[in-house]
Amino acid sequence: MTSPAPIPIQFGEPDGLPDGLPEGTVWPGPDTLVLMNRQIRSDADPARLSRFADDRWDLNPGIFEGHARSQSLNFEIIPEPLRLATKFYIWQLINHPKARTMRRSVTNRMALHTVEIFFYGSLQHVLKWFVSQGITEFCQVTNDMLWDYLDALDDDDVAIHKRYRRITEVRRLWIHRSLLPFYLRLPEAPPWDGEDTKDLLERTRGDRENRTKRISEHTMQALLRWAIRFLEDFSEDILAAWSEYQTLLARRPERRRGKRRKRMAGGLQADVTAYLAELRRRGEGLPGNRREDGTLEPAWRHISSILDCANSFQFTKSGRMIMKSGLPIENDCYLDTAATAELDGHPWHPRFPFDQTPRLARLLSTACFIIVAYLSGARVGETLNLRRGCVSFDKDTGLWLIEGLYFKGAEDEDGNKIPEGTVREDPWVVIEIVAKAVEMLEQLHESHLLFPNRLIPIKRTPGKEPKRRGEARSDRLIAEDLANFTTWVNERCLQLGRKDHIPADAAGPIAASRFRRTLAWFIRRKPRGLIAASIQYGHAYTQMLQGYAGSYEAGFLDDYAFEDWLFRMEGIAEDERRLLAGEHVSGPAADAYRYRVHAASREFAGRVVNNDRHARDLLGDPLLQIHHGEGMTCVLNPALAACQLRGSADDPMVTPDTDDCRPNCQCLARTDRDIETNKERAAELAEIVADTLAPPIRHAREQHELDRLRAIIEHHERGAHP
């Protein structure tokens, strides 16, 4: 689990310094490195690093995430009057040790990716407006002008979330005035007299709420079902085809560099004779290519790879043997590997065309990504940066573990982001099928990453570095892969007349960033829902809670808390509606149930939850500790609960084990809905007890349970009709 190490950079100070330069501020000259005070990847070419005078600054040498896209700053989009001033300002944000983010008052230097986001998304718009007002230096901006800027945002009908961000960039420029010389400082007084942005705009920022959309139930279930089918049913066929493809590809002339198999005299003719005999035995024709006029010709390049000989052999006696063989010419080049897995009693795939094999290998890789990313609850970037050998099995606990890097929240002792990431102290704890997916990925390619951007790396020309140095698949590529996976499945279902296609999601294209929220929804709403075979979401959740995903730093529990909050609020609303309609409640916790339902409705109705962690904190409120089970309702008081609690008593996420409910528990309440469930169960038991052929032991056990349920029903109905 290693990352590229930083390389030392040497630089020199410029001769002239501006007036009023604060102590501790280094002033760049034309040749000063843009990433002077940042860690640099060990594979970066020092001679190609961006300098201050450049109008485009390449940030990629300081980006360590393998999945990150190419990132740079293009200062040509900044109007010329403020371009140089902006470069000085941005350079300080990148390199000054006291430059900080907006969310903290202590030193917490921004990530390069963050700088790029606000540069293009907000700052450029603020600066363009400044220039339109005749500003050529930041010191010319006045407080009155900033109030005019608010009016301009209103006149231009700028979206509310964009107004928040642009106002933030003005504040960011102001809080860094102590790092800049006099002529680059905004007025000393805080912008807009220090008023909060929400008060200035008199509107709440809409994008503060979690906007990650869940993937619909039917879409996600079908997507996961097909991903598991690829892993468990199709993978061996794809691996065999992929191996044959790579063998033939390695024999291509441009890859062999003149090195060919050495044969004895007449050896090639003997191989051709055997090759033709095998084609006749299988009833197949020669590999073919279609000419521009529509006619077919032998695919000599492919045939030479099969025979491991020079492409020019077609002009020899061996080539004439093939032309005179009388075999028909196929309309494509097919592999010898045949599909062994079946769908609906037929091979899941027809003969594998040579050129289509990379697509199948990529689909298998994507299927494994779906399984690993979705069922681990890991962030997309963390999944894409997983390394070979990351999976282990703990024999003592019987748990499958995945070790990986994390980037979000990885900070040094000064609160600055660690760009190369940090190995997670607590690994992910996953179910076995996730470990199988990782094992499959390790067989699929030789990269040190599980999800490389290419399954077969391309050869790089010396001196020509790619813009994006990360070898991991990027967010954009994985989005394309998910779309291609869905397309392939749906085309196959259409061809075979199957009904289990992957339906389109109403919220838009399937994105990996939506997996965590979707998993949280399934665990909360469908804990007994089958993923595949006997695997349940409840089982996956139990495993996850025992490791990485169970720690709050991982973030998954925040997603789960948000779904739990929504679920409980929907339940509270329904409970109050039924109480007001006259629903009767019995049991030792009946009074507590009625009090909590009415009080929770008054307390939380209409409450806006701004973030997932806020939802987690609210879940600790005793008013929300109402959990509906099978024929019972738990009004949880951890101190009185007789069941085995899930979590510690002081944890806001603690829940009762409603599958382990004890009849003598003081937390029990029973609604009319619960009684209807018990009546159905009692009717089933009555049939079993009435069966004279039932074994005595079973008869006695079921009779005891039937008597208990009838007593509960009678007690409830007696209280409902005094």
Number of strands: 17
- Mean pLDDT score, rounded? 83
Helix fraction by DSSP (H/I, runs of at least 4): 40-55%
CATH architecture label of the domain at 364-550: Orthogonal Bundle
Return the CATH class of the domain at 364-550.
Answer: Mainly Alpha
Strand content: 5-15%
Write structural notes for this entry.
- With 722 residues, the protein is of the alpha+beta class.
- Among the domains are: 46-208, no CATH class; 364-550, Orthogonal Bundle (hpI Integrase, Chain A), CATH 1.10.443; 576-720, no CATH class.
- Helices cover 43% and strands 7% of the residues.
- It has 21 helices and 17 strands.
- It has helices at 80-95, 112-132, 143-155, 160-175, 197-201, 217-250, 253-256, 267-282, 300-307, 317-323, 357-376, 380-384, 432-444, 475-496, 515-525, 537-544, 556-580, 590-604, 612-618, 672-690, 696-720, and strands spanning 56-58, 72-74, 288-290, 296-298, 342-343, 346-347, 391-394, 399-402, 405-406, 422-423, 428-430, 530-532, 535-536, 585-586, 626-628, 633-635, 668-671.
- A four-stranded antiparallel sheet has the order 14-17-16-15. A three-stranded antiparallel sheet has the order 7-8-11.
- Helix 6 packs across helix 11 (357-376), helix 8 (267-282) packs parallel to helix 10 and helix 17 crosses helix 19.
- The longest helix has 34 residues, at 217-250.
- The chain is flat, with a radius of gyration of 33 Å.
- It starts with 55 loop residues before the first strand and ends with a helix.
Task: Summarize the model shown.
It contains 21 helices and 17 strands. The protein has helices at residues 80-95, 112-132, 143-155, 160-175, 197-201, 217-250, 253-256, 267-282, 300-307, 317-323, 357-376, 380-384, 432-444, 475-496, 515-525, 537-544, 556-580, 590-604, 612-618, 672-690, 696-720; strands spanning 56-58, 72-74, 288-290, 296-298, 342-343, 346-347, 391-394, 399-402, 405-406, 422-423, 428-430, 530-532, 535-536, 585-586, 626-628, 633-635, 668-671.
